[in-house]
Each structure stands twice: as C-alpha cells, then as structure tokens.
Amino acid sequence: MSNPYFITFEIIAYSLSALCFVHAFKNGTGNVLRLITGISFGILLELATIRQLNAYEYGIFPVMVLDVPLCIGVSWGSILYSAMEFSDASSLPYFLRPVLDGLLALNIDLATDTIAIRLGMWDWGQGLDFQYFGVPYANFWAWFWVISSFSFGYRLLARRKDWIATWLSPLLALLSGLAWVLATNWFISFKIPFEYHGLVVLLLLAAALGAVAAKRPRFYRVPAPALVFWIPFISHLYFLVTGLVSGAILEPPFLLGVSLLMFAAALALHRPTIAALLVKSRQSHP
Predict the structure, then answer these.
(1) For residues 219-237, b (16+ Cβ closer than 10 Å) or e, as one string?
(2) What confidence score (pLDDT) does residue 278 get?
(3) Is residue 2 pLDDT above 80, yes or no?
(4) Is the pLDDT confidence value at 53 over 60?
(5) Where are the alpha helices (H) located in 126-162, listed in sequence order?
(6) Which of 19, 31, 40, 42 is nearest to 166 (CA)?
(7) Across the strands, what pairs with 89?
(8) Segment holding 68, helix H or strand E
(9) Residue 1 pLDDT level (bands cut at 50, 70, 90)
(10) Distance from C-alpha of 240 to C-alpha of 260, rounded to nearest angstrom
(11) End-to-end CA distance of the chain, in Å?
(12) Is the model's pLDDT at 281 over the cut of 90?
C-alpha cells in the first residue's frame, strides 16, 4: 500500500502545477514554455545530481521517472514559476531578481526538508542528527543555485520583444541552469573541505540577503498573480500539518519553531494577496 503522505504530497504538487499552468496559458506561449522547461529542468537536475553525487535517494512514489518522483520535478517547476512571478512584481533590478528567487525557495526548503526526510520521502543516508537535523548544509547551497541559475539563464534573453525571448529563453535557462548546478555541486562537494560547508552556505546566504536588502525592494510594486502566495502557503501548510500529525516536526521541537518562523516570513511577504483574498471573501459572503 502506498504511503498516504506520499500520495497527498503528489496530489498537492500536481494541483499547484495546474494553478501555474492556468496562469501560463492566459499569459502567452513564453510563460507556458517557461513552466514546462522548469519542470523538465527539475527532473533532469535530480537525475543528474543523484548520479553525480550519490548522496541521497527518494522513496517510492506512485509516479516515478527512473529513480526520481515525477512530483519532485513538478514541484521544482512550480516553485521556479511562482518565485519569478513574485520577483518580477518587485522593484529589484532585473538581474538581481534571481537572487531573490533563490531566497524564496530556501524559505520553503528550510521548513520542509527536515520533515520530508522524517516522513521517508527521501533519505540522505546520514541519520537524523547529521548537520541540519539530518539535512546536509550543502543541500541549501544547491537549492539556492538551482533556482537562481535557472532564473538568471532565462532572464538573459527574456526582455527581448521577439521570438528569441519566447523560444530561446527557456532553452538557455535549462542548459545554463543544469551546467551551473552541476558545477556548483562539484565545487562544494569536492573542492570545499567538508568541515567548512556550513560556513560557506552561511556566507552565501548572508551575501544574497545583503544584496537584496541593500536595494530596499518594494514587493507587489505591480500586481502579482495569487499563485505567488498559494505555492509557498500550501507547501508550508502541508508539511506543518503532516509534521504535527506524524510527530516528525517535534523530533526535535526546534523544527516546529523553524517551520512557524518560515511560514510567518512567507505570510509577511504576501500581505497584499492575503488582504485581497480577505476582501474578496467578505464581498462574496456579505
């Protein structure tokens, strides 16, 4: 019998992807190609990383692409799409937006990865006391570069107003993203001494946060689609609820604190969408 946590995660992943596809189809071929390429990128980078590093393995989900669950690639695509939509609605300079995209993804991963391994969704093979409660520090390095490298590769040509932006931006994002992720994986795994992994990741995240904060960005400078809220909100909510139901989030209780903190940060970023949803709810239920 399939693990119920796996099945519900899969259903949620496909549902959030459908939300992104609805938006993409309404906003042109370029958006559809970006989303499809993001999903393909997610599957390919997982297949490549597992073979490059042999550092983790996935549990058996109902739908697999070789040894990678299809829903994982789909989730990567949804996170990429929603993060880029959010950063494009901000006042950040165009080529600094990939940095924000990477940080938005880490907001999700910091709260979810430790719960996922306790539910058996994937296994780093190092035990639950290893580094960040069972998750290697290098994983957070990888999450940042996965999102930011795809986003940067896409944006190199995306501002053009011709067919090149529509058709070549997704391809460039896929190829440059894969190359950069594999290169940065190799760098931290084989060139940075293991005992310095935590410090290197901390410096990377501090630099990224500092670069974004220095620009004092205004979020929702222009309207953003509601999916930029729903992707992180449902992701956080799912792992918070399943973590509490299973007890995994209390092993140790510190994980609950991190989960609530990251959830609160996501809610704070999306106050305009939350306010709009509340107004809409009041109007429909006078």
Answers:
(1) bbeeebbbbbbbbbbbbbe
(2) 83
(3) no
(4) yes
(5) 137-158
(6) 31
(7) none
(8) strand 68-69
(9) low
(10) 8
(11) 45
(12) no
